[in-house]
Automatic annotation (TrEMBL):
Protein's recorded name: Extracellular solute-binding protein
Signal sequence, renumbered to the chain: none
Organism domain of life: Bacteria
InterPro entries given in the database record: Bact_solute-bd_prot1, SBP
Length: 378
């Protein structure tokens, strides 16, 4: 009997082309399984609640901060009994795979790995800056862009704070005040040096501007897209590299990425789970998934020299950043905190509120959303 699965992902070659290409390859192996994919906007991918989606779709490409609340509300199917032993944390880059686990069960697989990294035009800038003073010097020369719309500005602030090794976003508050002030001072200076329109730009828009004009050469913090490093994707290519170093290490980058999950409401959980496990496997990740425009999470792809060469060293150039990435709180109410707080960071960068006001708001919001009585829930 044939099975028709419905999936939802996000509208970019990395999110949509990858799973469509992989699903086509899967049907060659499993002709009785057909998978149809719907794409939603990147903003909806980050913000749209999963409650309605699990009623319509069997397979969902999700952002890992959704996992704790989705798991506790029974929206996603546990995948553990459907997974081969080799799909464990060690099979994926950095902490990616673990972010889809909650309450001891695995609710997704890290098919897509990302964190904030740096990007540059190697034809214009043979060596990118490696420290924040070097970044600001290049920005003063008018060569730097930075995506700082609310979610990206918030992510950048968290990245800089986490890079100090301090605890960030706990029930006790946002972060130590001195760490916040040091981090925001850097970002505030950067915001004054880049074009004002950066305050409403996302990583894709910055990548488009970097590849579309020789005026700009570098961006210090943005979520990486291997697509812009591939031959023929745009007229020029970007190289991605580690974020600016702190004490010689690219620490603290906010972990992004995406994973494949299965609706608990699906009438075909076993079939959907088998596809998810196949999609996350090393051969598929470095094969059909990558070829379709995907950005794999499996280490087999990250260690593939052919894929690395095809992306101007994307995987080797950013792996240290991924391995030392910061994982956002594994808390059911974290997304509410992120949605509430993100616009505040951009407002402060634009000078509409003071850094002191921003700190007080972030600190109180962290205590309100990540209360001690909830924090024990894992």
């Amino acid at each position: 009997m044939s099975v028709h699965l419905q999936g939802i992902t996000w509208e970019h070659e990395r999110g949509h082309g990858s799973v469509v290409a992989a699903s086509r390859a899967y049907r060659e192996q499993q002709p009785d399984v057909e998978i149809t994919w719907t794409a939603r906007s990147l903003q909806a991918f980050a913000d749209q609640p999963l409650e309605a989606l699990v009623e319509r779709y069997d397979l969902l490409v999700v952002d890992h901060p959704h996992i704790p609340s989705a798991a506790e509300e029974g929206l996603l199917a546990p995948l553990d009994e459907h997974l081969p032993a080799e799909l464990d944390d060690a099979a994926f880059v950095g902490p990616s795979h673990a972010t889809y686990r909650h309450g001891g069960a695995q609710y997704g697989l890290a098919t897509d790995a990302a964190a904030q990294v740096a990007a540059y035009r190697p034809d214009l800038l043979p060596e990118p800056p490696r420290t924040w003073p070097e970044v600001l010097e290049l920005a003063r020369a008018g060569r730097v862009l930075w995506p700082a719309k609310p979610i990206d500005a918030f992510s950048s602030l968290v990245t800089l704070c986490a890079g100090t090794g301090a605890a960030v976003m706990t029930a006790d508050g946002f972060v130590d005040r001195d760490v916040f002030e040091e981090s925001f001072q850097v970002l505030g200076e950067l915001a004054r040096l880049v074009p004002q329109e950066c305050l409403s730009a996302n990583p894709i828009e910055v990548a488009e501007r970097l590849t579309g004009s020789d005026r700009w050469a570098y961006a210090p913090l943005l979520f990486g897209y291997t697509n812009y490093s591939r031959e023929g994707y745009r007229a020029t290519r970007l190289a991605y590299t580690d974020i600016p170093l702190r004490d010689g290490e690219p620490r603290g980058s906010l972990l992004g990425g995406a994973g494949i999950a299965v609706s608990a409401r699906s009438r075909h959980v076993p079939e959907a789970a088998r596809f998810a496990a196949w999609l996350a496997s090393g051969p598929v990740q470095r094969g059909a998934y990558f070829d379709g425009g995907g950005q794999p999470g499996h280490l087999a792809a990250w260690e593939d020299e052919t894929l690395d060469a095809a992306t101007l060293g994307f995987f080797s150039g950013t792996r240290r950043t991924l391995e030392q990435a910061y994982v956002r709180p594994r808390h059911p109410r974290f997304l509410a905190l992120q949605d509430t707080a993100s616009p505040w960071v951009t407002e402060a960068l634009a000078g509409r509120t003071t850094p002191a006001e921003l700190f007080e708001r972030l600190d109180q919001a962290s205590r309100d959303h990540l209360r001690e009585d909830d924090r024990a829930r894992r």
